[in-house]
Amino acid sequence: MHTPIAIIGAGLGGLMLARVLHVHGIAATVYEAEASAQARSQGGMLDIHDYNGQLALKAAGLFDAFQTLIHPGGQATRMLDSQGVVLFEQPDDGAGGRPEVQRGELRRILLESLPAGTVRWGHKLTSVHALGDGQHSLTFADGAMATTSLLVGADGAWSKVRPLVSEATPVYTGTSFVETYLFDSDKRHPASAVAVGGGSLFSLTPGKGILAHREPAGLLHTYVALSKPQEWFASIDFSDAAALARVAAEFAGWAPALTALITDGETTPVLRALHALPLAHQWPRVPGVTLLGDAAHLMVPSGEGANLAMYDGAELAQAIAAHPGDVEAALLAYEAVLFLRSAKEAQDAENLFKLCFGDEAPHSLVRFFRGFQEAK
């Protein structure tokens, strides 16, 4: 089959691209490796910012639907030292600058906004061949094939599309997260529930930290950060219950309400090694192909990843709509702005990451939060 626009990846960025194209009357096909929208959990809470993610949702005509998903109180932030002493606290002011929503619910409203058949589930891209004049041939794991006049890699950190335009590959940052959950925390884990509060918790020291967030129904979603070589994590069997005790040993002497976020974890811990592309990653104009989201600008966590992916998708769609019949002009316009935005955001993310886990943590991050609060 031939599709004018083929989007690889049904994450938030790829779906946003398809949706805003649809708003402008432009058809696209999204190819996704997973078998269905329910194939796996879609992760936890996202704070959607009024200067990028929310703008994309407005361009998609989905802002009202988005507002129904907001988790009340989720914007609250608190920082504790390793003994549980509060260093900084900011309640949810209800202003809506960065409200929290569940990633899965945000993805749902995007999926439901697309015409039936837009997303082709169970289509894992295995190879791409340039046919000339910006045309590409796509082959999928099940043997299906397609051709396209515009190929968009919205397929994340390990993009199969990126090698068409760039030789860059993600590099380990030196830090990994270990993810786990506590359920019905107000009843079953009250001390940890109080420590986390109503929104986000940061408890940090140089090179490590415990980060957690309250989700609906008393769910506490925890990321344990450790700056260690990948070999250290490779020595741990994360399918074994003892893995959490091994990780918690790195936090010996910390307040029990904090370490319980690790030791009392009620799910199999998930290791998430953090990788990043070069800060100023860009590529030469390659006819008929471009990237968005993590495929284009994978960076350390900063709260911007999902926002940037959606914003990229909306910007690309609007560029295509603004240049009817001239894909190359649309891609030139999109990429010129994308490269500048991505380089700035990647540098900002790295700076924030150093505030969190650098030599002056946690006081460096406290100063940052207070400065941000005073500037409002």
Characterize the structure shown:
The chain has 376 residues and is an alpha/beta fold. The chain has 13 helices and 16 strands. The strands form 3 sheets. Strands 1, 2, 7, 8, 9, 10 and 16 form a 7-stranded mixed β-sheet that branches. Strands 5-4-12-13-14-11-15 form a 7-stranded mixed β-sheet, with helices on both faces. It has a two-stranded antiparallel ribbon with strand order 3-6. Helix 1 (12-23) runs parallel beside helix 11 (305-322), helix 2 (53-59) runs parallel beside helix 11 (305-322) and helix 11 (305-322) runs antiparallel to helix 12. It is globular and about 65 Å long. The termini are far apart.
The beta-strand count equals: 16
CA-CA gap between termini: 52 Å
Mean pLDDT: 95
Unreliable sequence segments: none
Q: State the share of residues found in helices, binned by percent.
A: 25-40%
Rounded Rg: 21 Å
Name the beta content range: 25-35%
Structural class of the secondary structure composition?
Answer: alpha/beta
- Count of individual helical segments: 13
**Coarse shape:** globular
**How can the largest sheet be summarized?**
7 strands, mixed
Order of helices and strands: EHEEHHEEEHEEEEEHHEEEHHHEEHHHH
Summarize the structure.
The protein is α/β, with parallel strands linked by helices and 376 residues long. The protein has 13 helices and 16 strands. Helix 1 (12-23) runs parallel beside helix 4 (103-112) and helix 6 (190-196) crosses helix 9.
Secondary structure layout plus pairing:
Layout: E1 2-8, H1 12-23, E2 29-31, E3 45-47, H2 53-59, H3 63-67, E4 77-80, E5 86-90, E6 100-102, H4 103-112, E7 119-120, E8 125-132, E9 135-140, E10 145-153, E11 171-182, H5 185-188, H6 190-196, E12 200-205, E13 208-215, E14 219-226, H7 230-234, H8 242-248, H9 256-263, E15 270-276, E16 289-291, H10 294-297, H11 305-322, H12 327-357, H13 363-375
Parallel strand pairs: 1-2, 1-10, 2-7, 4-12, 10-16
Antiparallel strand pairs: 3-6, 4-5, 8-9, 9-10, 11-14, 11-15, 12-13, 13-14
Helix pairs in contact: 1-4, 1-11, 2-11, 6-9, 11-12
